[in-house]
Amino acid sequence: MKIGFIGGGNMANALIGGLVKQIDPTQIWVVEINAEARAKLAEQYGVQTQATLDHNLQALDVVVLAVKPQSLPAVAQALQPYVQQALIISIAAGIRATDLSRWLGGHPRIVRTMPNTPALIGLGVTGMAALPAVNTADRASATQIMQAVGQTVWLEQESQLDAVTALSGSGPAYVFYFMESMLAAGQQMGLSADQAQTLVMGTFVGAAQLAAQASDPVSTLRERVTSKGGTTAAALEVLAAQQVNNQIQSALEAARLRAMELGDELGGATP
Ligand SMILES: NC(=O)C1=CN([C@@H]2O[C@H](COP(=O)(O)OP(=O)(O)OC[C@H]3O[C@@H](n4cnc5c(N)ncnc54)[C@H](O)[C@@H]3O)[C@@H](O)[C@H]2O)C=CC1
Ligand SMILES: O=C(O)[C@@H]1CCC=N1
């Protein structure tokens, strides 16, 4: 299977980094307009790179669209002549498969996905939905590619991908934000940067693995840390008073609405 990426930025790097552990890198092509990014991809992963969309792409079985949503209408229209035989996988936030199909001249074989950056270390999670015309073999190919970098979840409704985008697509950024806040707090309380780093990373990795492996709900795990009248209770009282749980829900809803808006803005405005 020859796989092409259009756009070789952050997310393509994460996917390619995972894929090259399973697929011969010479079977991966990347079209990237930035020369520095192209050189880095070729050096780091041994993949083939090129600067423009051209007839070379006709050899590809699968094309992953990994440019920013705002670039996708023009990129898809320019790509149309070269990908008529290919399965198209989009990772763009918000962009609906029907709009993408239209920009590609009515292309029916489109799988819309939402991966996340832990794909780089094989621990991604990807939500997936397909146009009705996508057959079982294409669904299996798309699943195989995304499972090379982590877990996959197929959705019945494409619109659910906007919720997936808010939850797991953007999700690593919320976790990093929480980590940054804890690292700063650790240093403010007198620990060195190195000490805080070890303690915070260990806490996240340990808590995440405990939660993933436990048969008990996450709320029970939280209660087990929280001694009556103890330190955790003191901290959780502050979070509850600030209604941080509601704020997290509002933040995720803002992300979901932004994904929908991107779909409306870019899908509606283009032929
Ligand atoms: N960063 C993330 O965590 C995630 C991003 N996504 C989606 O992935 C897509 C890419 O996002 P990022 O990788 O973060 O963006 P990015 O800006 O890092 O990468 C986009 C790349 O496309 C290149 N590019 C732009 N126009 C091009 C063209 N005409 N031909 C070839 N290359 C071109 C740019 O030079 C850049 O390297 C977006 O649609 C985003 O919604 C999806 C899941 C997670
Ligand atoms: O922020 C964004 O729009 C992209 C989609 C999910 C993660 N990054």
UniProtKB/TrEMBL annotation:
Name any Gene Ontology BP term. Answer: L-proline biosynthetic process
Its Gene Ontology cellular component terms are: cytoplasm
Q: Where does NADP(+) bind?
A: 6-11, 66-69
Spell out the InterPro entries in the cross-references: 6-PGluconate_DH-like_C_sf (IPR008927), NAD(P)-bd_dom_sf (IPR036291), P5C_Rdtase_cat_N (IPR028939), P5CR_dimer (IPR029036), Pyrroline-COOH_reductase (IPR000304)
Question: In this protein, which residues make up the domain named Pyrroline-5-carboxylate reductase catalytic N-terminal?
Answer: 2-94
Primary localization: cytoplasm
Q: What pathway is this protein a component of?
A: Amino-acid biosynthesis; L-proline biosynthesis; L-proline from L-glutamate 5-semialdehyde: step 1/1
Q: Which UniProt keywords apply?
A: Amino-acid biosynthesis, Cytoplasm, NADP, Oxidoreductase, Proline biosynthesis
Domain Pyrroline-5-carboxylate reductase dimerisation, residue spans: 158-262
Q: Which SUPFAM superfamilies match?
A: 6-phosphogluconate dehydrogenase C-terminal domain-like, NAD(P)-binding Rossmann-fold domains
> Which domain of life does this protein belong to?
Bacteria
The enzyme's E.C. designation: 1.5.1.2
Task: Please provide, alphabetically and separated by semicolons, the GO molecular function terms listed in this UniProt record.
Answer: pyrroline-5-carboxylate reductase activity
Catalysed reactions, semicolon-separated: L-proline + NADP(+) = (S)-1-pyrroline-5-carboxylate + NADPH + 2 H(+); L-proline + NAD(+) = (S)-1-pyrroline-5-carboxylate + NADH + 2 H(+)
Question: Which EC class is the enzyme in?
Answer: oxidoreductase
Membership in a protein family: Belongs to the pyrroline-5-carboxylate reductase family.
Q: What does this protein do?
A: Catalyzes the reduction of 1-pyrroline-5-carboxylate (PCA) to L-proline.
What is the official name of this protein in its record? Pyrroline-5-carboxylate reductase
Q: Which organism is it from?
A: Parvibium lacunae
Lineage, broadest ranks: Bacteria, Pseudomonadati, Pseudomonadota, Betaproteobacteria, Burkholderiales
